Amino acid sequence: MKHLLGCEGLTRDESIALLDSAREFARISDRKVPKLPTLRAVTVVNLFFEDSTRTRLSFEAAAKNLSADVMTFQGQGSSLSKGESLKDTAQTLEAMGADVMVVRHSSSGAAARLADAGWLQASIVNAGDGTHEHPTQALLDAYTLRERLYGDKSVGKGLDDVSVVIVGDIAHSRVARSNVHLLSALGARVTLVAPKTLMPVAVDQWPVDHTTDLDHALSSPPEAVMMLRVQQERMQGSFFPSPREYTKHYALTAERFRALGEKTLVMHPGPMNRGVEIASVAADSTQSTILEQVTHGVWVRMAVLYAVSQGRKDA
Ligand code: CP
């Protein structure tokens, strides 16, 4: 694969191959010096037009673990303020030697535009584009589920019949979209939960169940519940009466967490709004995979950087 623009269109076999490759890369964490020479002489540019903590730093760690050279562009403080375009910015970075560009942008389709417009030779990895997709987040979520559910028996496995409830601002969530595509391809049973105003209009065409009733969705505890942040920055107007009302109906509160029992995994892509969509007792519990998800992000991004670098060479 030369680019990774989304999980839509990734086959089950391609997805499992990426997860298995990430598992191979995870083995370097046991080493004294956790570095491989795999991407020596490859330059990875993090092209971030939007804020990030986890994704940017984890791509940086992944590239360094593979001995790539890393440059980071952040929108703030750049020549964007002087009116420089996406095309000119990307071409400028390619002229400095970028082989792989990891792109985060507030516009849906920005990564695909860079990949398809014929402006660049570089491989493009989508690190989150508007409300569209965040494929490496979904891959690290699937990786985490496989590890918790199957451990050493994960290799070659999908997530057949694993029940996952995704709760929150589905309409604005690129994490939800990527997870719907990937988890479905891997055979999981996904249920989306959101108030009507935060459910995508076309949700009936997605290969998932959906409901507005969180307590009903959790009444038969799923294998995992994934809580999403309310994305105020992508909202124009009011989608629910008040944060308190939202928490009452759609948060994993301490009461709902206790009622789930001890087997359901608690996931969140971060950043969390503690006390809004998730109670600390759930986020900090042994059932929580939130920090594991962050660690697994490094291995998954190593696998993705390796795959697109190979794809670029082949192309
Ligand atoms: N999950 C995620 O994308 O986090 P960041 O915005 O911190 O990268």
Write a structural description.
The chain has 315 residues and is an alpha/beta fold. It folds into two domains: 12-133 and 294-314, 3-Layer(aba) Sandwich (Rossmann fold), CATH 3.40.50; 135-289, 3-Layer(aba) Sandwich (Rossmann fold), CATH 3.40.50. The protein is 38% helix and 14% strand. The chain contains eleven helices and nine strands. It has helices at residues 12-26, 54-65, 86-95, 110-116, 135-150, 174-185, 214-218, 243-250, 254-260, 280-283, 290-314; strands spanning 43-48, 69-74, 100-105, 123-129, 163-167, 189-193, 209-211, 224-227, 265-267. Helix 1 (12-26) crosses helix 11 (290-314) and helix 5 (135-150) crosses helix 6 (174-185). The longest helix is centred in the C-terminal third of the chain and has 25 residues, at 290-314. The chain is globular. Phosphoric acid mono(formamide)ester binds at residues 52-55, 128, 134, 137, 269-271.
Task: Based on the model shown, name its key terms.
single chain, 315 residues, Rossmann fold, 2 domains, five-stranded parallel beta sheet, four-stranded parallel beta sheet, 9 strands, globular, binds phosphoric acid mono(formamide)ester
Look at the structure and give the mean pLDDT.
95
- The CATH class designation of the largest domain is Alpha Beta
- Side by side, the strands of the main sheet go 7-6-5-8-9
| Percent strand | 5-15%
Bound molecules: phosphoric acid mono(formamide)ester
Distance between the termini: 9 Å
The CATH architecture of the largest domain is 3-Layer(aba) Sandwich
Number of domains: 2
Taking all Cα atoms into account, the compactness measure Rg is 19 Å
CATH superfamily descriptor of the largest domain: Aspartate/ornithine carbamoyltransferase
The chain-level structural class is: alpha/beta
What is the fold named in CATH at topology level of the largest domain? Rossmann fold
If helices are DSSP runs of H or I spanning 4 or more residues, what is the number of helices? 11
Helices and strands, in N-to-C order?
HEHEHEHEHEHEEHEHHEHH
Which residue ranges are poorly predicted, with pLDDT under 50 across at least 5 consecutive positions?
A: none
> Largest beta sheet, briefly?
5 strands, parallel
| Shape assignment | globular
Residues in helices, as a percent range:
25-40%
Overall number of strands: 9
